[in-house]
From TrEMBL, chains A, B:
Domain PRMT5 TIM barrel: 37-309
Statement: the UniProt record of this protein carries the keyword Magnesium: no
Pfam family, one: PRMT5_C
GO molecular function, one term: protein-arginine N-methyltransferase activity
Species whose genome carries this gene: Helianthus annuus
PRMT5 oligomerisation domain: residues covered: 503-669
Domain annotation PRMT5 arginine-N-methyltransferase: ranges: 336-500
Positions bearing the site annotation: Critical for specifying symmetric addition of methyl groups: 362
Name assigned to this protein: Protein arginine N-methyltransferase
Residues annotated as the enzyme's active site: 471 (proton donor/acceptor), 480 (proton donor/acceptor)
Length: 671, 671
């Protein structure tokens, strides 16, 4: 039974599982727990006492393995929807004891083969026993190589010792350097050994004490599929019911947000008030009358309560504002949720012509045009004093007019400020020009608007402009070649003319995003690892605040102007974050349209409710491991050739990566 | 003029160059230096004072660049054989000064384009100016992407500060950690950024003081093409002539051995005795009479003297012994020199039948058979007391008899010890059996030798053997499936019978070998990075002594025997070595034939003058950077399936690599 309703959430985070002990009677296990309100069980598949080495080798072939029931005791749908297999927790493939190691290999192989036979969706692998897990990883890697669709969840306790305790970091005992414990390192070794296999993921064991917020954040970029919350991690509220600390609550919100399923584990450790049947959240319980109440139902109820009272998703919090602005909520949701972590190749706006559907979508982004209207209004007022408003006509050119939204915003600004306007709408796409003509006719703008069907870089303007309005920005600001286009158009701007936007700056930050890395890797080629993608980032960890990269200012009258750029950035990540892995860099832009009117997607200053731009993602060919406290140095170049513009990028610290996209061999934007 | 003669050396180390200053008159530069005894010049191509930014931009296109002469002043052969281009040393592509950076980019581009136009074999790139070299590397990487065959030699000073000075390692000044200086790190960053490009190599600047021997060793695995020795690094001998310290002499021997060309640099700093014209080595100088004596000729003479008195190559030191054993010296030299660093796929001895040529070559390895004869002799004497020698016949089976060399060795042992022998020669290759029959007839062994044309794993022997003799060893001991074959043959060995060999052990050590890495990379696929190669290792740095890996003992009567193995090895490399890169692992074997008679190729205990086995090389898919003082953990598994045997391997420290060759997907030996 899903945890309840939460606005718009259709993800797996609605479901909650429970970890059970071995029981031969699987139908009972399932009915007890499903009736108790859980959606699935994490159940051992084999009797925990069984060891291959205890069976006489002559009998080994004839004997029946002590599995929990035959495949017939549940329907195929029940096995696959409601059971996660729990591999025997005693197994230890890195033990020094040869017998134990051999028994472990046999058990792991038999249990995974059985789980695979049952078509389970996932199996929970026990936590590696020591710091070394190479043999365990080698064995799992061999199995992954030939596995069906089953996921393997490696159980990792959520622990990290405090780095501030200097003794534990640098202290020596018996001549050995004692490293602080960080279970992330164990996971990282295991998955590196298994080559970041997409079917290997994490089940986090959430214990009563939690590591620092910074270090928790890393996990959201990792493929965490489940969080196992132990009953003894719960506190007791004033009424005697289980509840969680504020920090645990916040962590669970994160799990819900990132579609990580909760699994409850352990026995009831709270003595509930006698005769009580109401749940902690005050809801009535439909099941208590008809069936035995589940032993840990009160914990489940509390998790359901947290889920239902969860803060709305960031994407949803502006619903009322959206309605206020008459924004199409469905479209907005599609843009914000439907495209999550979906990699798109950036547009080639100069080489290709946009399609009608693309114009249609972007024109609905009212917020963007409101900002443009505000910028034009301010520029008009600055340019023409009130006393000249009725006598002076301002020449405004919209370069890259598309199907006219900026023409409309400019005319509205003129009307709002009472200024007289003459508009040239310059557009290179002949298909968009058709629409422009019909718009002008429909709106009766014939006296004010002149349509020019021409590339702004070639057009010979009959007069010079007071104001040049453009929207040629990409997710990374200059990546759709706004600098080159506006340099070309600058010829017909008056020396004291205004460009809207007047400047724009790109921003970048390092991220962990196992999801996107694996999506890029699917292509099995260099080209896709050297391409920047437009992507609605969701399942990722932002490891450091973003930093400014390239700035372009218009108009640009510097004598030896070049649009080539080089930037070196150093990201200092707090040592308490622990070590982490960088899969790539997330990029954004912020544009100053005019004076204090800006527009952008940099997370800390993003224009609310705007959906025209997703971030950009620059991948790394090999994920870079950064040890706790080490700085991360990133370099990026904007290179210009005679026919194309491209970026090259690399990391030089903690270790040097190859230079990506040398000479724009994989990814470039045509001029 | 080559440095002189040294037994068998036909490599580039015979040649010596000289670094010159800018001179417009290239024919003069060349004739002065060639007549002075040098083989090539390292000469600046462009006037050092020239800066693009100083030229009026209007004139820039029309003006002639101040190169040293036109391409016509020398013949194409002279340019390509005798001139290495020296790129202007002032260039600094990572300067904070934008003008300098831009001038540097222009100069580097112009000079390399000119060098390329002249078809020079190599250009010397100046040392990066600071610790950061990302922009320099990016620019060079772009050029490498489209370069003709020209090599780029990055000039790197041979410096490394002393790590034993604890203050410099961990001390802080102004809150910054002061890292020790190690120019290898600079090189490593640069080449990582350029993706280990095979046309990017190193020219080492040898200064008057040298880093530790351990740290020097690293460089022999790197693509060092030239060593620039400065005149002020020379000492003065008793007669007033320049000479080098013992440590410098040893280093130069290394350069000669690894075919690294010497380039002399600098002015004469020794005042030679007046009127002297004899060189330091006492040779008469043919050139002093006919031409102006070269200013630094005495330094060149000294280098020539060192070259000529160089220790014979390790491969050559046993020439006399070879002749003593009647070993074909030419064959030996081909095996030792001709196959240097040539990657060969290992044999599939069970699946394929060897060809006659292969038998021919290996049968010439007399040393091997002498060892077998010694082992059989000792075993015969142990088995049969003198008093029973004439009455008891020993049953000896040669399994894998090939064309008979072990049969011969066994019969010679019997003769030598006066024991009576009955030999079964078991061989699966029907082609070899033909030769065996004719050998037996020719030698008159019909009464002593029975030939069995059968796979030893299937043969039903008519009686049991006292002694089982085999030579099924690969470079890594068990890699040609000796364990599986001998397990199969053990059925027909008496319970107290003797196996020769009685055991064998594999060994492994980490190596830097840029050469082999680039050769593997050429294939551009995963398969070749997950294959172990048989290779006569030459141009590599051995970073640590080898360690034992797997041991197999025969006969093996343990109840639950398995030939699967797993070994974890930790290599602790002295901190004074500095950081280094591991391209893979070199493997060897040592076999105990009988008691103290052994046979093997592990470098410290290798059987002299034996050429049947080259080492084995396990590559790593991505070279692993190991920071100074960090341990290197290596894991290797021997896995057995029903139809094949294979290895998997990985590194887990300092960082985890993928598991190589999962399930034997790339490389395996068929059963």
């Amino acid at each position: 039974m899903p945890l309840g309703d939460n606005l718009g959430d259709k993800s797996d985070s609605r479901y909650c599982g429970v970890e059970t002990e071995f029981n031969d009677d699987m139908p009972h296990v399932l009915s007890y727990n499903i009736n108790g309100g859980f959606d699935f069980v994490v159940a051992p598949l084999m009797e925990p006492g069984y060891r291959a080495s205890m069976v006489n080798s002559a009998n080994r072939e004839s004997s029946v393995l002590p599995f929990a029931g035959s495949d017939l005791v549940l329907s195929p749908a029940q096995w696959s929807s409601h059971v996660v297999g729990k591999i025997s927790s005693w197994i230890d493939l890195d033990s020094d004891d040869d017998v134990l190691r051999e028994d472990s290999e046999i058990a792991l192989k038999q249990e995974l083969a059985w789980a695979s036979h049952l078509s389970l969706q996932a199996c929970l692998l026990p936590t590696p026993k020591g710091k070394s897990c190479a043999n365990y990883a080698r064995f799992v890697n061999q199995i992954l190589e030939n596995l069906n669709n089953m996921q393997l969840w490696l159980r990792i306790p959520l622990v990290k010792s405090d780095d501030n305790d200097d003794d534990s970091v640098n202290g020596t005992s018996d001549g050995m350097v004692v490293e602080p414990t960080d279970s992330w390192e164990l996971w990282n070794s295991f998955r590196e050994l298994c080559e970041h296999h997409s079917q290997l993921s994490v089940a986090l064991d959430v214990l009563s004490s939690l590591p620092s917020v910074n270090s928790l954040g890393r996990w959201f970029g990792e493929p965490v599929k489940a969080a196992i919350v132990h009953t003894d991690s719960f506190l007791t509220n004033a009424r005697g019911y289980p509840c969680l600390s504020k920090r645990h609550q916040k962590l669970l919100s994160g799990f819900f947000y990132y579609s990580i399923q909760i699994v409850l584990s352990g026995k009831a450790v709270h003595n509930l008030p006698v005769g009580s049947s109401a749940s902690a959240s005050g809801q009535t319980d439909n099941y208590t009358q008809q069936a035995q109440r589940h032993e840990i139902r009160s914990y489940l109820d509390y998790v359901g309560y947290l889920y239902q009272k969860m803060e709305p998703l960031p994407e949803q919090e502006h619903f009322f504002l959206l309605q206020l602005y008459c924004i199409n909520v469905d479209l907005y949701l599609i843009m914000q949720l439907g495209y999550r972590d979906f990699l798109q190749s950036p547009l080639q706006p100069l080489m290709d012509n946009l399609e009608a559907q693309t114009y249609e979508t972007f024109e609905k982004d009212s917020v963007k045009y409101i900002q443009y209207q505000r910028a034009v209004s301010k520029a008009l007022v600055d340019r023409i004093p009130d006393e000249n408003a009725s006598t002076t006509t301002v020449v405004l050119m919209v370069v890259g007019a598309g199907r006219g939204p900026l023409v409309r915003a400019s005319l509205q600004a003129a009307e709002e400020t009472g200024r007289k306007l003459k508009v040239y709408a310059v557009e290179k796409n002949p298909n968009a020009v058709v629409t422009l003509h019909s718009l002008v006719k429909l709106e009766g703008w014939e006296n004010m608007v002149t349509i020019i069907s021409c590339d702004m870089r070639c057009w010979e303007a009959p007069e010079k402009a007071d104001i040049l309005v453009s929207e040629l920005l990409g997710s990374f600001g200059d990546n759709e070649l706004s600098p080159e286009c506006l340099d070309g158009a600058q010829r017909f701007l008056k020396p004291d003319g205004i460009s809207i936007p007047s400047s724009y700056t790109s921003f970048i930050q390092p991220v962990t995003t196992s999801k996107l890395y694996n999506d890029v890797k699917l292509h099995k080629d260099l080209l896709h690892f050297e391409t920047a993608y437009v992507v609605k980032l969701h399942r990722l960890a932002k490891l450091s605040p973003s930093q400014a990269v390239f700035t372009f200012t218009h108009p640009n009258y510097s004598p030896d102007k070049s649009n080539q750029r080089y930037k070196k950035l150093r990201f200092e990540i707090p040592i308490e974050t622990g070590s982490f892995i960088v899969h790539g860099f997330a990029g954004y832009f912020d544009a100053v349209l005019y004076k204090d009117v800006h527009l952008g997607i940099e997370p800390t200053t993003a224009t609310p409710n705007m959906f025209s731009w997703f971030p950009i993602f620059f991948p790394l060919r090999s994920p870079v491991y950064v040890k706790a406290g080490s700085p991360l140095d990133f370099h990026i170049w904007r290179c210009c050739g005679s026919t194309k513009v491209w970026y090259e990028w690399c990391v030089t610290s903690p270790t040097a990566s190859p230079i990506h996209n040398c000479n724009g061999r994989s990814y470039w934007v045509g001029l």
